[in-house]
Amino acid sequence: MDSARAVARRIPVAPPSVISNPPRLWGAGAPYAFTPDPDILTLDPAFNDVLYGNAGLELAWRATQHHPARWLEGPAWCTEGRFLLLSDVVGGVQYRYAHDAHNITVFRKESYHSNGNSFDREGRLLTCEHGLRRVIRWEHDGSCTVIAKEYQGGELNSPNDIVVAADGGIWFTDPPYGDRLLEGHPDAPIGNGAPASRLKWNLDAEVMTEIGGRAHREAHVFHVDPHTLEITAVLSAAELAGPNGLCFSPDGRVLYIASSEIDTSRSGGGHYNLYAFDVEGKTLRNKRVFAHTNVAQHKLMPDGIKADVSGNIWVGVSGSLGFGGVLVYDPSGKLIGRLRLPRSVSNLTFGGTQRNCLFMCAKDAIFTLDVATQGAGYA
Questions:
Q1: Which terminal Cβ of the chain has fewer Cβ within 10 Å, N or C?
Q2: Where are the annotated coiled coils located (predicted)?
Q3: pLDDT tens, position by position, 290-334
């Protein structure tokens, strides 16, 4: 073996770079614009139809000493207040982001590890709380209504994402992700007193000792009647593993659900895929894989999802450096474009006065992109 081949065996060959070259600067000190933006990747000409040519990706806000956000989630645009509402799941705080001023203020100081947020057809705020394992609605008079907390005598897991249908029906996912120390609290002891884990579930805020731990239920997708508050299990874990983000098609006839379950040994599919279901009242039928969220042989984890008025599906994804960001699919499930960000995206929504600004939550930061389309329905 010659020396060159010997050296080649000892030194691994680096894969092609998946980040901008030269490395991109973000924030206030960044250049004004890239034309075209190197991190907006068109994979199909149809993607150009929803892009505004002069707009680029921007780091709009990042956590500061005064507002030390740790994991931003659940963005929802308030049309009346003209602000973006979002949750810091780890910090247990909800924030109000004023896009015109690039300024953030505390909206709710203790949100019990809130995650997903949405506004219903009457403009009332709906919030999923990991810590108290419930879904709440804030009424116009300032009172709080518990929309969902139990199902068949057992507590919920950790309500994650939430959407409102055209008929006012409330749909939310209830995976077990809030059982983590940083996003809620571990489970309480079960059965004969044997601990659910080595972790102590009640080493947290004093209110946690009042609610106990969950009943170790399987994950579900639920529907809540907005008038009677009757809760119905629409999908079980056996039917869909790891339900996470969800959104409706513009006409409300299809519900898309992201699965964040990678374990292929479990029933219910999952496996980091996007699924589509036909909606019939509060029943889902015709389960099918809408997209596999693969990029360059990398399997990315889908999280929050939103539809635009043309029926394209925008998906926040997590992956290794250079692969995190947003994937965009046309209504047939074809990947038409990517937004490549320096970190993974947990959730996203359309907002702004014309609903043509895409807001993306990425750990402790908010990224934005002005687009040539609008968000469909209510975020």
A1: N
A2: none
A3: 999 999 888 999 999 999 999 999 999 998 888 999 999 999 999
CA atoms of 172 and 149, how far apart (whole Å): 12
Q: Which residues of the chain have pLDDT under 50?
A: 1-13, 379
- Total domains, the chain: 1
DSSP H or E segment with residue 290:
strand 283-291
Q: Give the per-residue pLDDT at 42.
A: 95
Token pair for 59: 């780091």
Contact 295, 323 (CB under 8 A): yes
Ramachandran region of residue 183, left (φ > 0), alpha (ψ -120 to 50) or beta?
alpha
Domain contains 331: yes
Residue 89 tokens, joined = 């799941």
Report how far apart, in Å, the C-alpha atoms of 122 and of each of 75, 142, 247, 303 are.
18, 14, 19, 27
Please indicate, yes or no, if residue 351 is contained in any of the structural domains: yes
What is the pTM assigned to this prediction?
0.90
Q: Is-contact 274 313, C-beta < 8 A?
A: yes
Range of the domain at 172: 37-370
Give the whole-angstrom CA distance, residue 277 versus residue 275: 7
For 43-189, list the strands marked E by DSSP.
58-62, 72-78, 83-88, 93-98, 103-108, 114-119, 125-129, 134-138, 144-148, 150-151, 154-155, 162-164, 170-174
| CATH code, 115 | 2.120.10.30
Inside any domain, residue 8: no
